[in-house]
Amino acid sequence: MVDSLSAAQARRVLLAAQGFGRPTATAAKPAGTRQLNLLFDRIRLLQLDSVNVYERSHYQPVFARLGHYDKSGLDALTFGPATPSRPSRYIEYWAHEAALIPLESWPLWRWKMDTLRQHDAERYEWVRHNQAMLQWLRDELASTGPTSAREIEHDANRRTGPWWGWSDVKQGLEMLFRWGEVVSAGRTRFERRYALTAHAIPAELREREVSRADAHRSLVAQAAQALGVGTASDLADYFRLKSSDVRPAIDELSDSGELVSVTVEGWNQPAWLHRDARIPRRIHHVALLSPFDPVVWDRKRAERMFGFHYRIEIYTPEPKRQFGYYSLPVLVDDALVGRIDVKTDRQARVLRVQSAWHEEGLEARAGGLGGLGGLAERIVPTLREIAQWQGMDPITVAGRGTLSPAIEAELLR
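Below the sequence we write its predicted structure tokens.
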């Protein structure tokens, strides 16, 4: 086993662990259910987000790794109706942020559900003052079965909250969801259908008891496998775990040989390599990454590993945006070489490149890409594949950004 990695090796370990560098599917032969399940086995979760200016966040990481696939196939796996006798293979919970996780992982989060139930009652006045509403929701779901918040709201509810305007019903359902009393039993047009746990999860999983220590050991092992190599904070962040729980888990996994202590060039913290991690000699891959992709969702780690300073600007007022509303990092081989603000104009059926930028010091960081023309030559085929996957034609370039002229020229070739 190795005891040290170069910075480039660490990047390739991460990307290989995340499923990059493999042949991608085409529109003529798209990835199917088997490939989707294998990807879940590898990365363990897909973060959910409602922003839909280009594509919802859980769809893009799959395309970035696998290439063409039918989104309805992923929907059937993740958002289809679920019952205890015919459970979904995947379920939602607050793993990292709101995320899809394998159903088998659900018992590993019981410690968090129990902790939140206790602390939410202490922290939130709403919980203390709305016990009757919470019980009414339990009773309502028991009698109606899976349903959406909208369907069970009634005229006694009033909109509250400074930003989202959630009703008391929605607030209550989300609390019960946090505590594991309610789960998602599928979605329709991205609207979640809530169900009592007993209506969607098999009894064997509901009744399985996993100690907090055992759960953390399993989750840290999964995080290490998904990242390939990481610091203690990296391993904790993957599932948003506390360092006080992660440190003992790392010690146990190191003692068992599942994690191997390594040093990484340029890192000022100890790191651990998963024993099954590959160290490829090279990665050949081009992809646009969702802002919520595991490769970049930890902005500090992205900067440490790739020299890539990234902030999503959807919450930044337009005059203050530097790169664009929904600017996606561009991966070329083992480097993040730029960012493209892309929009799927569904009404006009056009994929719009709002702006495109290359990174400063690109040649030194990525090496031998043949200038901006060579970089555009690598990126444009992926943009065309994205447009085909989205059913958009043509691709238009607005012209803003240092890389836009080269992309526009390549599209015209």
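Confidence is low (pLDDT under 50) at residues 155-165.
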